[in-house]
Structure formats: C-alpha cells, structure tokens
Amino acid sequence: MKVAFTHNLRLTDSEREAEFDTAETVDAIAKAIEAAGHEVEKIEVSGPASNLLERIENIDPDIIFNTAEGSGGRMREAFYPALFEELGVPYTGSDAYAMALTLDKWLTKLVIGNHGIDTPRAALVTPKNLDERLQRGLGLAFPVIVKPNYEGSSKGIADDSVAKDAKDLTPVLKAALREYPDGVLIEEYIDGIDVAVGYIDGVGHDSGLLMPVEHLVDGSGERPFNIYDYRLKNLEPGRVHLRCPANIPRDVAARLRSVSLDVVQVLGLRDLARLDYRIADDGRIYLLEANALPALNRSSSIFVATSQLGLTYDATVAAVLNAAALRANVATASELGLRRRRRNLSPIRVGFTYNVKRDSSDPTNDDQAEWDPPETIIAISNALARQGHIVVHLEATPDLPRVLAEADVDLIFNIAEGVEGRNREAQVPALCELLNIPYTGSDSATLAIALDKALCKKVLMQHDILTPKFQVMETGRERLDPALCFPLIVKPNAEGSSKGIGNTNVVDDEESLRAAVRSVLNRYRQPAIIEEYISGREFTVGLLGDKRPRVLPAMEIRFKDPTVQRPVYDFVVKQAWEQHVYYECPAKLTDTERKNIEKIARDTFWALDCRDVARADLRMDDDGRIYVLEVNPLPGLTPGYSDLVLISQAAGMDYDQLMAEIMLGGLRRLREKRREEREERRAAASARANGNGGESVRDERAQVAATKMEKAAERAEKAAERAEKAARKLAQMSRKPKRGVVHTGVISRAPSAHAGNGNGNGAHAGNGNGTHAASEHDGGNGAAILDAASQTAH
User: Strands 550-551 and 537-545, how do they pair?
Assistant: First the structure.
C-alpha cells in the first residue's frame, strides 16, 4: 500500500509541543511501515491546511497513518480525521467524533457515567463560572486535583496541582485558568495505583485488549500525592517504570477487562487506543481518561504490553495499520500477509509462581535472601511471553491456594521458595498436584528432600555418592560424633543462600563448635548441621532435562586471596563478591576429571529424582575425590548473574533458550495430561452410548456435545504439543555451535544492583567449604521494566 504518515514534529522541549512526536519516533514509525512492505511518505501537518491538502492530493495514498495532534483548540485532534473523511481517504484511528469526545475529559465523564462506569467525581470550571463555583462550593471531597480539560501528556499538571482544602484550591484554580482558559477539571484525588490498558483491534486473544500495565515511580513514597505530572512524563521519565502484567488481584483484572471492553464500545474507539485507570486500595476501578490518539514512542505502555504477546515495535505499528486497512477494505488479509488465525487454538496460559524480594535496603539482612527481585520476575515473565504464552503472575503468598484454584491456568512455571518451614519449597508443587495442574521443575518430594540437607545426604549416601560426613544437632547439647574430624562447618539444616553462614562457622575445637550451633539454633529456630570441611577445588554444575539430563559445563569458583586457607563465602562477603572470587567456565579439568564430575552430577540428579533443571555443588579434594556439597532443584535465573545463567551462556545458550529448556518438561506433562483427559472423555462417551443405544433425541444431543468436547480436547492437546515443539526447537538451537563464539574460562557477572534469590537465584546455600554462596544481584536484561513516562495525568 501507499501510506501517507501525518504527524506533528516536536522541535522544542516546550510544554506546548509535549504531545507532538519526536524525530526519533517519526523515523521509527516510518521504518516500521516500510518494514511491513509498504511505501510511506511522511507529512508534517504544521502550517496551512491547504499545504496538507496539496500534499495528500499529490501522494494519492491508499491509506493515512495518522498521529497528528493538532496545534490548538478543543477540536484539534478531530480536525485531521474530519478532513480525511471529507477527502474520502481511509486513515488509522478513531473517527473525528471519538477524537473530540475523548479530548474533552468532562464530556467523556458524562458519557461514561451514563453507562455505569466509575470515574472520579469532578467539576468543570471555566472563567465564566469561576466565581459562582467558588462561592457556591464544588461539592467535592478534598483533596482534589486540578488539570486542563482539553490537554494530554500531563500538560498543566505538577506537584502543586493537588489542593488539600478550599483555601489551597483558589490560587491553584485561578493559575490553571490563566494558562488554560478553555476550562479546567477539578477532580477528587483517588489514592491507589495507575494502570493503563492498551487496545489494538485484531491483536492478542482478548478482543483487542492488551495486558494491563502498571506505572511505578521511583521515590513515590517521598511525595505526598502519587501523580504522574508533566515533570515525570517529560523531564524525568527515567523515574517511571512499567510493569506488565500489572500486579493486581485476579478479580480486579477480570473487572478491568470488562470495564475496558465497555469503554471501547461506548466511546466508539477503533484501531488503537489507551485507557488510563486509577485502581483504589479497595479494588474499585476508576477511569481517568481515554486516549484515542496514544503516544507511539518506543517506551509507551502499549509496546510494553504487545511485547508480552511476542510483538516487536515494528509488528505493533504494522498491526495498527492492518486494522485500519481491513476495516476500510483497503486490503485483504492475504494481501497484508496475515494468516487466518487457527480456530480455537489459544496460547498456553502459564501461571508464574514466585516470591518477590521487596526489601533489599539492608545487605546484612538475610530474611528474604532466597527470594527474587522484581527485575528477575519480569525478565522470566518476558522470556515466557516471547515464547507465545500468556503469563499469569501468581505470587506465593498465603492467598495462593484460593488464587490458584481460580486462576484458570494450563501450566505453572515455578520458582517459588516458600515462606517458612523445611517443606516450604515443596508447598507450590504440592498445591499444583492437589489441583492437578502440571508444573515445571522437580516435584514436591524432591524439593523437600533437597532443602533438608541431612535428609538429602542420607539419600546420596544410599546411592554411594560421596558427601562430607555430618551430624545434626537439635539442642546443641548432643554428644559430638567421634567419627567427625575437625575442621568442621556449622550451618542451618534447611536454609539456602548462605543464610546462617559466616566466618565463624568453620571451627577447629568443640567449644567454638557449640557456640556456632547455639547461634544457628537461636537465629533460625531449626536444627544445625555439622559437616567436615573439605579442602580443594569447588565447582557448580547445571543440569537440564529429565530422564537423560543434559550436563552443562562445570563452573569453578576460585578465591582470589591465596593466603586464606579456609575461605568462607558468607552472606555478608558475597555482597562484594568482586573482591573475593572469580568464576571460570568451562573449568580447567582433565578429561578424566571432567567425566567424573559429569557422572557424579548426573547420578545426583537421578538419586534425588530431579527433573527439568537443577544445579549441583561439588568439591574435589587434593586426592581427586569428588564430594557433593548440596543440590539445588530451584537454581537461580537472574539474567547475567545467576550461576545457571552464566553456565548456560558459556554453553552457547541465550536466556530465552534456557527458559525454553526448562519449559520443555512442563509442556510435555501438560500434553500428557490433556491426552489422558481426552481418552477418559472418549471412554465415558462410549460407555454412555453402549448403555442406552443412543436411540433418543436426548442421546443424540449428548452425542453431539460429546463430539464437540472431543474436538475441543484434541485442539487443546495439539496446542500443548505445538508449544512443546516450539520450546524444543528453541532449546535445540542452543546446542548448535555458534560461529565466532568461544567460551574459555573466566566470566564476569553483570553489575549488581539488587540482592537476588540465593537458593533460587544461583547462590549456593554454601557449605562454607569455600562453597560459592553468592547472593544474586540482578544484572537486568532490560526487557521487562522500561524507563518510561506515564501516559496518565492522575
């Protein structure tokens, strides 16, 4: 198609041009249209309308891609669509009526309110009714926010736009009217979170609605009111982050979807739109404004949401153009290169269970050491979404049993560490087993055994796998086993991430031993395990797969200070790991040593009945004997930092390929479950038919219903099978040698900013035998939390 791209070019940083497109955005949109195979002509619309008419007549476009905001007046956004309609040229976006309606916030409130949709209570004030309004009163509850009625991009909104009482309101209101004489809106301030819902017709699987995006502001607690003002949006956009999907309860998300569909229909929005909401603390949803001409800069919330569907920036822009072309019959789906969507082939709904670390201010506090920082959570979520799955966030709180039962997910991707107790890592898998939901990773029995260090050692010993001698003390008064030889190391029996391990945990005499045991008992309220300290080289080995796991190259943890005879990588020291250790992958080993390490790692994986993914921590003494220190079936997945991620990178895998490898086992179990369900329904239908001969009309209807269910089950099984094949294909790409990529030794972690999950984030629980116990710091792949400005002014 020949496409005319109409826009306003932003030439200055003035507030007047805040809604215009920058040169970077204009170029990005034009390149996206060209990448879709169309011819594009850029038209800057500033200046006389006659010039625009002449350009359009000369170009004679098949369709217009319009982002022009207009330069002034209450009808400015509607001017260009009205002109295009008069010329008879199809264009993207809503019509002139919807543009005029949505630019007028007060009118939008009236229309929406008549359809039972909540918006904050408000009043429209103009210079003509100002004195009357102030004298009669507004009838609103303070605090209130004052904003221009006919502006976007947070224009006219600042910290002082919120008035706490009537006395504060008068000067704020008069100043706003001097700047925006067309009228200002006084709106009750609603405390809560800001969420944006994008809409692109024909995109996704929810009638064009995109996943909700939550706006987060750095240092928001320092401000008296949570508002996205002009400064945040245009001058300090780096302080604003976007989280997708928004962290809201399932029932709120369902109501948000329903409200959004109503808003789109009531306002007559088409092709592209963005709806801005404030969700109050009680879960009530308020529409702040509807934007029929949303920003298309790369950091926009719309592109954060479409990335969850696996769409790039170019593909998203093309989708908007395609929606308009199909609606206007400018082109057919086949001409646009669109394939007919397979009927009822929904993507896999993946529930993502995790524990999120919220307090990392005190580096010496290990209460949440095993949990994951938000950056890791979103990086994994984005990786899963790029595989074509719908990701449903499920934080592993005490409400998880209820939420999971209502979540309607097909599969669980689990990294949840649990909250308390020696069976905490097994809680989510056990719950999934109760609800018959397939999940990734090892089952509840394996996770419970692996977290209990003493029990894990007993299992390993039964399989003739070498592990340091040990003893468990529950009171600290038990007689010390004479078979144990000093030096010994003391640590909590059911903790990870080096919790409870310090430089005093390696002891040389019984008095020091019992002091260390008492410290563990008092701090962690659980038995202490005492192990013989094994001197030698330390390795960590990642494994992927199930019955025949793939053993990744061994990574050696090497301490920098050769004068330290018995180094301990404890919880405090690991915060400054750069000063103390470096990592080498693949480790420098002889063929015999390498094969022995791989064999022991694989035997350990089998002995504990691990599946999908695990990491084993090993120590090789001076005589070449290899000891298993610990096994972690929930290894860390922090991009650019966690041990397993670093090892996989050394093996030639990128982050998405690693996630695909882990997903394989869960997808296979999902496919098997759906096949079993289909066979059971088929057997039940056959039994009913044989029992009554299928002679009555009721029997015929039942047979028809059973046939439909059978076909639906087949489609569901095929969807799971396709997802599994796609994951396998992506994973297999990592096994092919990559040209120009050579991994030879020392590797560096990404710069750390957040303390991450240890037992679940690549930080070995640490036997302290120089065991690598690094708390993970998120290096951040930048794929999930984007620095961006809010599109809402509230």
Answer: antiparallel
Q: How many other C-beta atoms lie within 10 A of the C-beta of residue 450?
A: 26
Cα dihedral 177, 179, 185, 188 sign: negative
pLDDT on residue 572? 59
Find residue 194's DSSP bridge partners. Answer: 215, 278
Backbone angles phi, psi at 684, to 5 degrees: -65, -40
Cα Dmax for the chain: 98
pLDDT of residue 294: 94
Q: Which of 399-403, 691-695, 778-782 has the lowest mean pLDDT?
A: 778-782
- The DSSP result for 2-19, as a single string, is EEEEEEPBP-S--GGGTT
- Cα dist. 424→357, 397, 427, 610, 662 in Å? 16, 12, 5, 17, 21
Number of CB atoms found within 10 A of residue 64's CB = 26
User: Structure tokens of 735?
Assistant: 């096994």
How is residue 575 annotated by DSSP?
G
pLDDT of 363 reads 52
How many residues appear in the chain? 794
* Inter-residue contact 789 to 194 (CB < 8 Å): no
Cβ atoms of 254 and 285 closer than 8 Å: no
Detail the DSSP E strand segments found in 416-574.
470-473, 488-492, 506-507, 528-532, 537-545, 550-551, 555-559
Rounded Cα–Cα distance for residues 209 and 586 (Å): 46
Name the amino acid, one letter, at 325: A
Q: How many CB atoms neighbour CB 709 within 10 A?
A: 16
Calculate the alpha carbon distances from 739 to 112, 175, 656, 769 in Å: 58, 64, 19, 38
Look at residues 63, 151, 102 and name the one whose alpha carbon lies nearest to residue 273: 102
The dihedral through the CA atoms of 706, 711, 715, 718 has a sign that is: positive
Residue 743 in contact with residue 651, Cβ under 8 Å?
yes
Higher pLDDT, 718 or 195: 195
Q: Which residues contact 599 (CB under 8 A, 6 or more apart)?
A: none
339: pLDDT confidence band, cut at 50, 70 and 90? low
CB 76, CB 14: distance < 8 Å: no
Distance, CA of 776 to CA of 755 (rounded, Å): 5
Strands annotated E in 292-359: 349-354
With CA atoms as reference, report the closest residue to 109 among 169, 162, 183: 183
684-708 exposure pattern, b = at least 16 Cβ within 10 A, e = fewer: ebeeeeeeeeeeeeeeeebeeebee
3-state helix, strand, coil in the chain (%, to 5): 40, 20, 45
pLDDT tens-digit map of 101-115: 999 999 999 999 999
> Element (H or E) spanning 704, and its range?
helix 697-733
pLDDT tens by residue, 494-544? 776 556 566 678 889 999 899 989 988 888 888 999 999 998 898 999 999
- The answer, yes or no, to whether residue 625 has pLDDT greater than 90, is yes
Name which of 163, 105, 107, 110 is nearest 138 in CA terms: 163
The span from the CA of 670 to the CA of 720, in Å, is: 7
Q: CA triplet 785, 638, 399: central angle to 5 degrees?
A: 75
Element of type H or E holding 134: helix 130-136
Cα separation, 540 vs 629, whole angstroms: 10
Residue 248 corresponds to which tokens in the numbers above? 């809201």
**Is pTM beyond 0.70 here?**
no
| DSSP calls for 141-196 | PSSEEEEETT--TTTT--GGGEESSHHHHHHHHHHHHHH-TT-EEEEE---EEEEE
Which three-class secondary structure state does DSSP give residue 666?
helix
Token pair belonging to 282: 């009680």
**The two three-digit tokens of residue 262, written as one number:** 């109503």
Q: On the CB side of 17, how many CA atoms lie within 13 Å of its CA?
A: 12
Half-sphere exposure of 689 (CA within 13 A, CB side): 14
Check: CB of residue 245 under 8 Å from CB of residue 784: no
